[in-house]
UniProtKB/TrEMBL annotation:
The keyword Signal does not apply. It comes from Spodoptera exigua. One of its GO terms (molecular function) is protein methylesterase activity. Gene3D superfamilies: alpha/beta hydrolase. Residues 75-383 form the AB hydrolase-1 domain. This is Protein phosphatase methylesterase 1. It comes from the Eukaryota. It catalyses: [phosphatase 2A protein]-C-terminal L-leucine methyl ester + H2O = [phosphatase 2A protein]-C-terminal L-leucine + methanol + H(+). Keywords: Hydrolase, Serine esterase.
């Protein structure tokens, strides 16, 4: 079962009864367990942002500093459905410290700060054409070597982009994160119920980040603090929450009510324990089910309606199957070196299992993380991608990367 399927199925489970002995994982925030959910500016991770205009609209692109040589690869990151280019923030910080490269992180149509006329047109053909045009416009003087890295929906887009005749000669490598045709298609039947289980509104940016972490959507609070504000908009202004981050005033004293130790309540979210990435442990059977409760809106009254989701993914359902149909065959047909990162070894379908046994691509399984692998474990993902780039002689390591001996990382499971 893939990480995405696990996330969907766990939302249907009843609340887990908290422990009654030892240090409570449901302890009140005042008991030393309170995390910092205040938002962080993307400027701590990216050098600049540019708005690239193409016929379809204006696309936001976040850039790390330019590499030391124009022939160094540009790592083009494509996010999953509902996320944004800022979901790659911590990954960007990590990988640019390991190898000489530049990260190019794009807000896909309908997401983040990208503005187009038809936000609901997320057909695979449209998404691929968008990215193709953005790259040609961004690198109008000549497209440098590219390594495409895509997560979930973005992984499906990356595979198809790498097959475009105008870009194929520039693609030096492709990495797909936690998306496989078979398991993704199976998960689509439950996607609407998963989306309905999420809160519809939040009363502050801080509360949105808190939900993001405590629900398990992103397990890394540092990543959630920079990525979650790019996924919600202010209901009054219609602007993305990242525009308020630098002047943001903390409302931590109005945090979500702490879950009680006696009984779970419908308006509470049980917090995940530190160090348990997906709530599973061989020595603690009671932890095999990750628990959280998603209210329809976080808070009460009008104050709970200040922020809402940037994109209504449920309205794009007609496009979902198109993202993943034929993905495995397309991935195996890419001429450039291929890397597949999964959150579970059970995620492979038959076609990719055969391809992996034939050595047609490198596969790496990263444990103790959820579906948002690159946010939960950005350092590990960066290490794998950096080693992949070095193994195929696409770039050179930085001084830190050389000290890390990245090529000694054993590929595979």
């Amino acid at each position: 079962m893939s990480a995405l399927q696990k996330t969907i199925m766990k939302n249907k489970l009843p609340p887990r009864v908290p422990r009654t002995s030892g240090v409570s994982k449901m302890a009140p925030f005042g008991a030393g367990r309170r995390k910092d959910y205040t938002p962080v500016s993307w400027k701590q991770y990216f050098h600049q942002s540019v708005d690239v205009e193409i016929n379809a609209g204006t696309f936001r692109v976040y850039l790390s500093p330019e590499p030391d040589h124009p022939d160094r690869p540009r790592i083009v990151t494509l996010h999953g459905g509902g996320y944004s280019g800022l979901s790659w923030s911590l990954f960007t910080e990590e990988i640019t410290s390991m190898i000489h490269c530049q990260v190019v992180s794009i807000d896909i149509r309908g997401h983040g700060e990208t503005k187009v006329e038809n936000c609901d047109d997320l057909s695979i053909e449209t998404l691929v054409y968008d990215i193709e045009q953005v790259l040609h416009k961004l690198f109008s003087d000549g497209i440098p070597p590219l390594v495409l890295v895509g997560h979930s929906m973005g992984g499906a887009v990356a595979v198809r982009v790498s097959l475009q005749p105008s870009l194929e000669h520039c693609i030096q490598g492709i990495a797909v994160i936690d998306v496989v045709e078979g398991t993704a298609m199976d998960a689509l039947a439950s996607m609407q119920s998963f989306l309905r289980s999420r809160p519809t509104h939040f009363k502050s940016i801080e509360h949105a980040i808190e939900w993001c972490v405590r629900s398990g959507q992103v397990r890394n609070v540092d990543s959630a603090r920079v990525s979650m504000p790019s996924q919600i908009i202010n209901c009054e202004t219609g602007k993305l929450a990242i525009n308020e981050v630098e002047s943001y005033t903390s409302v931590s004293d109005e945090s979500l009510p702490a879950p009680t130790r006696h009984a779970p309540l419908a308006d509470r979210i049980a917090e995940e324990s530190d160090g348990e990435a997906d709530g599973e442990s061989e020595t603690c059977p009671e932890d095999t089910v990750e628990h959280f409760i998603k209210p329809s809106a976080v808070g009460d009254g009008n104050s709970s309606m200040k922020y809402k989701w940037r994109i209504e993914l449920s309205r794009t359902e007609r496009h979902w199957a198109g993202w993943f149909r034929g993905l495995s065959a397309a991935f195996l047909s890419v001429r450039a070196p291929r890397l597949l990162l999964l959150a579970s070894i059970d995620g492979l379908d038959r076609e990719l299992t055969v391809g992996q046994m034939q050595g047609k691509f490198q596969m790496q399984v990263l444990t103790r993380c959820g579906h948002a692998v690159h946010e939960d474990t950005p350092g590990e993902v960066a290490r794998v991608v950096a080693a992949f780039a070095l193994r195929h002689r696409l770039t050179c390591p930085t001084e830190l990367g050389a000290d890390m001996q990245l090529l000694h990382t054993v590929p595979g499971c």
